[in-house]
Specification:
Blueprint (H helix, E strand, L loop, with lengths): L3 E19 L5 E21 L4 E6 L10 H12 L5 E7 L10 H16 L6 H11 L3 H6 L3 E6 L3 E4 L7 E6 L6 H11 L19 H7 L1 E2 L2 H7 L1 H11 L5 E4 L6 E4 L3 H11 L5 E6 L9 E2 L6
Parallel strand pairs: 1-8, 3-4
Antiparallel strand pairs: 1-2, 1-12, 2-4, 2-5, 5-6, 7-10, 7-11, 9-10
Length: 301
């Protein structure tokens, strides 16, 4: 067994996101349709003497090491397996932070799998997903490897769906961040006291093609974020004007996602947008399961 393994930690996008009532524990229930993107971070885990988790991060500033979700995830697996060794993580950030693209969640999910691989797969898959649910509402989906799934509750309940064909995509990251707790507060403030979200009927037919997904795509955070962050609204309007068949904000923002029918349409849209509304990242949706941990040689990550 290799002492070093690595994996790609893929970004997620929310094609449908409904924020339900605030529950007694202070958290909101969710209904969401997830898709994986080619856009990814890179995470390597190395077995080391001792019992501790250390991490080095290259790229975006993601805050103190002690708060890093990947480091926390690695610690959970070490705890579950008796702290028989230490782990050093090397994270290369490519997914924008505080953008609603699940970068931290993807890194946490990758760390769960990598450290479990180093531990000889000692933690069964169903228990690994329970650990994922303790880390955040996006982590179970990222840990599942599914390219397309419906989730509800706090993200811990997942229904894997048949993958749709990969399509070209653009991610636009406006030059403002949106803190998720703040966005939930805006949603609560905008809703009348005691209001509840109405019912919605979802079936495999309505989720079986990009055309049907585009017709039902929505995000409850959009209206409040657009009101609080005019730069996000302006970027959304510019992106929607490039002719995508689907354009939405992902998660609680501020990143925006647009899907196109051809790479040429996507690339033309990127040229038209330039950098006026923030960073533009060409990518695509995934039509296959995310890859698992692989042995890493020098320089591969």
């Amino acid at each position: 067994m290799s002492d070093r393994v690595h994996v790609r930690a893929h970004a997620k996008a929310n094609l449908l996101l409904r924020v339900l009532a605030r529950e007694a524990d202070g958290y909101h229930g969710l209904e969401t349709l997830f898709a994986l993107l080619e856009l990814h971070d890179l995470l390597e885990a190395e077995r080391r003497p001792g019992r501790d988790v250390t991490i080095e991060v290259h790229g975006a500033d993601v805050g103190p090491d002690a708060d890093n979700l990947a480091a926390r995830a690695a610690g959970l697996v070490l705890d579950a397996t008796g702290r028989r060794f230490g782990v050093h993580l090397r994270l290369v950030k490519r997914i924008p932070a505080q953008a609603g693209l699940g970068g931290g969640s993807a890194d946490a999910a990758a760390a769960l799998h990598l450290v479990n691989h180093l531990a000889g797969q000692a933690v069964p898959r169903h228990e690994l997903l329970q650990l994922a649910a303790r880390l955040g509402s996006d982590v179970p989906f990222c840990a599942s490897g599914a390219p397309f799934a419906l989730a509800w509750g706090h993200g811990e309940r997942l229904l894997r769906l048949p993958a749709l064909p990969a399509v070209p995509a653009l991610v636009v990251q406006p030059p403002v961040a949106v803190a998720t707790p703040e966005a939930y507060g805006w949603v609560d403030a905008a809703r009348p006291a005691g209001s509840k979200r109405g019912a919605v009927a979802l079936d495999l037919e309505s989720l079986g093609s990009w055309g049907s997904v585009a017709r039902m795509a929505a995000n409850d955070f959009e209206s409040v974020v657009f009101g609080q962050r005019p730069a996000v609204r302006a970027a959304f309007e510019a992106l929607a004007g490039t002719g995508p068949f689907l354009c939405r904000m992902s998660g609680s923002g501020s990143a925006l996602l647009a899907l196109y029918r051809t790479p040429e349409q996507r690339d033309d849209a990127a040229r038209r947008l330039g950098t006026r509304h923030g960073v533009v990242l060409p990518t695509a949706t995934l039509a296959h399961a995310a890859p698992g941990p692989e042995a890493a040689g020098e320089g591969e990550v």
